[in-house]
Amino acid sequence: MTTTTTETAQVCKALDDIASALERALAGITTLRSLFSPDDKKQESDFDPKDPRNKYEIGGLMKLTDRGIEICYRLFDAGKTRYAVKELMDISFGAADHRFKAWEKAGGVNREKMPLD
Question: Does the predicted TM-score (pTM) go above 0.70?
């Protein structure tokens, strides 16, 4: 009878260990899902890439304002490619590439975000 009690206790402990591991795995999956799911829709709706405040004209050329640069960075934060930013912001690929490299240098998604005025 001692053997059966010991075996039952071991089985119960193994089941508890499996249940705990499953709970940790589910918590990890939930965390990953939150990282990959587009909660960015809410953030993206806060700004318009085509907003006239994103650019200013100098010598016949359109340049990005500080706000426009921040919009580019936020688009990169949301996982947009340089090609997507080019289209959304109506800028050249070279300008989008330049902003992407500056965004990476500033820390990428971990950079300090600037307020949109």
Answer: no
